[in-house]
Structure formats: structure tokens, C-alpha cells
Amino acid sequence: MKTLIASAILLSGSAVAHDVHFSSNSCDVDLNAGISIKQNVITFTKNNKPLYQIIDNQTLIVDGKTISLDSNQEKLVNEYSTKLRVVPTEAKRIAIDAIDLAAEGVNLAFSEILGEGNDISVNLTRQLTEIRNDVNSQFDVNDFTIDENGNLQDDFFTEEFGQKISDMVQDTVKNSMGTLLVAVGQQMLFSGDMDAFEAKMEDFGSQIEAQMEQRGELIEAQGERLCHSVYEIDQLEEKLKSNIEEMPQVNVIVVDKSSHKKA
Q1: Angle in degrees, CA 167, 175, 178, rounded to 5
Q2: N or C terminus: fewer CB in 10 A for the chain?
Q3: Domain-by-domain residue ranges, the chain?
Q4: Stated pTM of the model
Q5: CA torsion sign, 241 to 29 to 149 to 162?
Q6: Which pLDDT score is estimated for 26?
Q7: Contact 28, 261 (CB under 8 A)
Q8: Which InterPro entries does this UniProt record tie to the protein (predicted)?
Q9: Do residues 147 and 36 lie in contact, with contact meaning Cβ atoms separated by under 8 Å?
Q10: pLDDT under 50: residue ranges of the chain
């Protein structure tokens, strides 16, 4: 029973805290400037002042002046801007997949104890679905801002957000303990063999944990791919600085290559 509740349910809830905060285990990324991604313009800032802008993936503006670029420089600017725009989309997908993972773990575990469509599963699924919808609707990939301290305009990728989901799952389990104990007692009574019932629950809990870990590995792989994308952006930034004289020599994105694992 401990494996079933603690490992399956709480693990699936806390999985969001681990997986949404994707950069912590994938690679070491430092920001030395802020980045704002709008529909038509990407703005890089330092101390709340613009460093440079890229408009429509092709026009480079430094100190309010449009920089004349040759074909190779234009290609670098376009690739740099295009790859940056993919990052919020990938991050949003990871967040949603992690929430789906938590909901799946909740339903698997409680349905085994209380049956399909039980109130606890329905309640938790509803709350997780609301959070998922919030992420889907409020996290705008065309209005993404992160400052030079790593602070996001939204809290969907913070430890606090993951902890909020974990606490929600744990509180629901705690408040429903009476219902759970009654259901467990009934199953033990009808089974007639406490040891066999306990073994069944432990085995089922282990199965859920294995399934959640397997799905969690897929999310972790997404994080590794995102890490690799950021690493490529870091390399492109260095090329821009070495090939375009007017580029500010601020290292906006720094990826620790020793921490990077290519997906």
C-alpha cells in the first residue's frame, strides 16, 4: 500500500516539479541578458536597456540602427532567431506532457483501489486539467520574456509551480484518507488473505512506478533535446559576435558544455 500511494501518486505529482524545470538536470545554462520574444521581434536587454533586436528573423538592429548584412550574416541572423523562437514551444510541450503524466498516475492508482470514475480521481483530474488549460492558454509562445536573472513572466516553469501540483495531489490524498481506508478495508475483508492483498497492492504500485518512470524518461528526453537546442543557439551567438562587427560583445546565453548531453 505504501508503494501504491507514496510511489505512484505522490511520485506522479512531484514529477511535474522535476520535469517542468527541465534545465536543471539536462544542462547548465546561464543568462547574462534578458530575452523577449514577440511575434515579429526578439529583443535582448541588459540592465533593462536594449542590446540589440532581430525583426522578422532577418533585420538586425543595434543601438537603434539597422545593420547592413551580407548573405552569410543574414543566414546566421535568421538561423539564430528561428532557433530561439522554437524554445518556448518546446518548453510549453514539456510542461503539458508532465501535467498529463501526473494525471495518468493519479487515475491508474486510485482506479485500482476505488474503481473507475471514483470521486478522488475525478477531482484531481479536474484540477490538473484546469492547470493544463491555464498553461495551454496563458503561456503564449509569441509573448515570452525571461530576464537576465532567469525570471520568467509566468510561473509555469518554476519550482513553486511544480510544488503547487505536488501539494495539491498530497492534500487530496490526505483529505480522502477515510474513503481510501474504507475501500482498502473492504477489499481486504473480501479477499480473506491480508498478505496476498498487501502483495497485490505492492506489485501494482511497483507496476505504476515503472510505467511512470518510463513515461518520465520520454519527458526527460524532450528536456535533453531542448538542452541541445539551447546549446546550438549558444554556438550561433558566438558566430554572430565574431562575424558581425556591430554585435554587442555580451555573452547572452552560456551553456556549460561539460554538463551538456547531446540527445
Answers
A1: 145
A2: C
A3: 2-255
A4: 0.72
A5: positive
A6: 54
A7: no
A8: DUF2884
A9: no
A10: 1-24, 259-263
